[in-house]
Design brief:
The chain is mainly alpha-helical.
């Protein structure tokens, strides 16, 4: 999809997207979740910013733009804000029809870590397989990682920056699509942005 077409869809749905954003912010605030001292909405906005910037590179259906943004805003809602799959589906259904709500919910579900004692256990093969198989989930996961890396660099968290740097080859391989479907693709400009951040 061309960037201007993507931007026009966002503009025409601006009020709806703002409602989704506010809903996600309120959800995480209701469970007192913070992101390195910031309200958790700070992180959600960083993830959504990448969708605004790069979404046209993966989206080929105008009906998928709002679900993709919902997925970005709600990507941690099951893992961190205590929602169930059906809770997210019900939330999405307040803003979208059944088809769009399902796309949006599947993104959030795919990005929910498995149960595990360690970082590696929580993000094992089953987790990554779910991301690879879900339309737009690899893209939103990459947006999540870009946001985390950007924040670790800005905030000077060298420990996390080093962890992300060490994980990057495996991470990119793990979420890399096994299909030519653009909805599963990883935009090269995002990968380039990550590489620049971790090498600086």
């Amino acid at each position: 999809m061309k960037q201007d077409q993507f931007n026009n869809i966002i503009k025409s749905n601006a009020q709806l997207i703002e409602q989704i954003r506010n809903s996600a912010h309120e959800l995480h605030a209701s469970v007192n979740q913070f992101y390195d001292g910031h309200p958790y909405g700070f992180h959600l906005d960083m993830v959504a910013d990448s969708v605004y910037r790069y979404g046209h590179l993966v989206c080929d259906n105008s009906d998928d733009v709002v679900p993709m943004l919902f997925g970005a805003y709600y990507h941690d809602s099951i893992e961190d804000a205590r929602l169930t799959y059906n809770d997210v589906l019900n939330a999405a259904s307040q803003f979208m029809d059944e088809r769009k709500a399902l796309i949006a919910t599947e993104i959030a579900y795919a990005l929910t870590n498995d149960k595990g004692r360690t970082r590696a256990e929580r993000a094992g093969e089953k987790y990554y397989n779910g991301i690879r198989e879900t339309p737009y989930a690899p893209f939103v996961k990459l947006a999540d990682r870009l946001a985390n890396i950007k924040h670790s660099c800005i905030g000077g968290n060298q420990r996390m920056k080093q962890i992300y740097k060490e994980e990057l080859p495996h991470f990119l391989q793990a979420i890399a699509p096994k299909t030519d479907d653009p909805r599963h693709s990883l935009p090269q400009p995002m990968i380039d942005a990550i590489m620049k951040l971790i090498e600086d």
